[in-house]
Amino acid sequence: MKRIKMVVSYDGTNYCGWQEQPNGITIEEVLNKTLSSFLNEDIHVIGASRTDSGVHSLGNIAVFDTEMKIPADKICFALNQRLPEDIVIQSSCEVPADYHPRKCNSVKTYEYRILNRKFPIPSLRFNTHFIYMPLDVRKMQQAAEYLVGEHDFISFCSARNQAEDTIRTLYEVSVSKTDDIITIRLAGNGFLYNMVRIIAGTLIKVGLNIYPPEHVREILLAESRDAAGPKAPAKGLTLIGIQEQERLAPVIISHDDCFDYVVVQNDIESKSRSYVVINYCKDSKFEQVVEHIVRQQIRNGAEKVYVYDKCSGRLKDDMMVGNYTFRQPETDLLIPKEAKDYVASDEGWFVTEDY
User: Fold this and answer.
1) Catalytic residue among 52, 152, 267, 309
2) Is the CATH code 3.40.50.300 the one for domain 106-242?
3) How far is CA 280 from the centre of its chain?
């Protein structure tokens, strides 16, 4: 049995999104049927990003398992001869059997394109959102800056969101204009349901001078979907690509209006441990933030996560935070210098129990 990874591009105009569903044809359904017929096996692909109905892709990632003898790098050529012209496999290769496209650290990049002119252009009708009223790009750029970094993006996700938590990190949120095309570009470690389209709809309202740029910060703090702008149409959105991260950053520093913390990951590879120092966190966000950090550290390979809360008293022996239990560690615990540099004393650490 081999696991094959594919980079998949598609025009999403005629599809009801990526994921199979009963009310219309999807990208996943077409891939499953085409691969099963071609390989004479029951094939089920796993996609990295389950894009919505009408959303396009230049580089989604999908994997499937097969007994086939064909070289992995040749599968894209054979498959493209059998797929409809609006779905194209850009590359294929073999990956380890435990590789999962949704369980590895990666940076996803999306672009939302707006055609901003007096009249539409027919050839762009399927991959841009047309707006005839002038948009103030400079104000949209100012508003976008409030979204960069790690935040709770619950205001920017639809009610159907099923994510375990709503904290995400955006590394880039930019707005640029070339001729009549305005491009909103977002790169992050993950996105909530409809998050990019709601951000685009909100920035459009800023561009129309309905919202001032600083209102985006107020939307983040409101933690309510009702505070944000409308969801922009799907046809303007394209998944540009997914870049997998090969190495963990030794130190992560994250802060916004609600929290400020440091994660030291130097010991994950050698000792399966990581260390978290919470410099500040609102009481109302504390458990959510701690659970978010611990979940990510376990995903990164830590078997134990040590947490130091500078606002002492919130962590206690046998305290449950989400699915994780904390206890005071052994007294002879040796905290690495990289982590001790951020704390006031050696006392006050708590560690996740074995699980």
Assistant:
1) 52
2) no
3) 24
